[in-house]
């Protein structure tokens, strides 16, 4: 999210002029960010409620690349053709994730609403009462029919818990969020940019399936969309992951 001019006001009582100005600016920023997310949400047919103002502001302030923790993995292989990277084969270790299952009419609605619920958990709505920190990518598990010709509605949006919280993850206040331990997994990852919807995801699944030498080694009906940019961004950096069979 980029900086824009604030456009709302808030007055505190009994504070110095400096404190009053600081609080007013703080609240103006919160209002501006909420308004921005609400306009983006409308584009995805998603209502962004007012109680998201504080999590959005907190996440935005901590959205510097140096503040984000990348999910660790071991690179096994890079497959290139004429200097272009076709895909990477990676090993991800066993780890705990905060997961929420969504089943909206459209994929974009599911990831936006799921991401907002996870944002609340990350931004202090947890048993530790602390801001947990952003990890990237945020991932979404999607399912297709056996023929890989259509996606099912149900998806799982998941947040990798930072290393320091892996042993004892804070408990979510939202009962829809479940802490799961995922086993170590080998994935085949291919990068793509732009929006993620049913059409673009199916296109990327079919593209990677055509490139892989042995697609039969991977699950045929379960895939992961890894998002490195928040769902409000237009030109997102994404990856499609195929999961190697256990």
UniProtKB/TrEMBL annotation:
Alphabetical list of InterPro entries matching this protein: Reg_factor_effector_dom_sf, SOUL_heme-bd
GO molecular function: heme binding
Region (Disordered): 1-28
Bias (Acidic residues) ranges: 17-28
Similarity section: Belongs to the HEBP family.
Listed name of the protein: HEBP2 protein
Organism: Leptocoma aspasia
């Amino acid at each position: 999210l980029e900086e824009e001019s604030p456009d709302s006001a808030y007055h505190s009582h009994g504070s110095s002029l400096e404190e009053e100005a600081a609080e007013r600016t703080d609240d103006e920023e919160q209002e501006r960010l909420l308004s921005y997310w609400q306009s983006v949400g409308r584009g995805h047919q998603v209502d962004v409620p007012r109680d998201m103002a504080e999590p959005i502001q907190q996440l935005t302030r901590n959205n510097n690349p140096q503040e984000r923790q990348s999910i660790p993995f071991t690179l096994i292989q890079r497959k290139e053709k004429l200097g272009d990277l076709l895909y990477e084969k990676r090993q991800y270790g066993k780890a705990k994730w905060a997961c929420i299952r969504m089943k909206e009419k459209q994929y974009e609605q599911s990831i936006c609403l799921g991401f907002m619920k996870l944002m609340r958990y990350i931004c202090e709505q947890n048993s530790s009462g602390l801001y947990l920190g952003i990890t990237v990518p945020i991932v979404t598990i999607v399912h297709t029919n056996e023929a890989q010709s259509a996606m099912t509605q149900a998806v799982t949006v998941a947040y990798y818990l930072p290393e320091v919280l892996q042993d004892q993850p804070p408990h979510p206040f939202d009962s829809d969020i479940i802490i799961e331990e995922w086993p170590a997994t080998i994935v085949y990852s291919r990068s793509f940019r732009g929006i993620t919807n049913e059409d673009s995801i199916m296109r990327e699944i079919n593209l990677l399936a055509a490139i892989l030498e042995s697609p039969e080694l991977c699950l045929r009906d379960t895939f992961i969309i890894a998002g490195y940019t928040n769902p409000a961004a237009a030109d997102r950096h994404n990856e499609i992951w195929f999961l190697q069979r256990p």
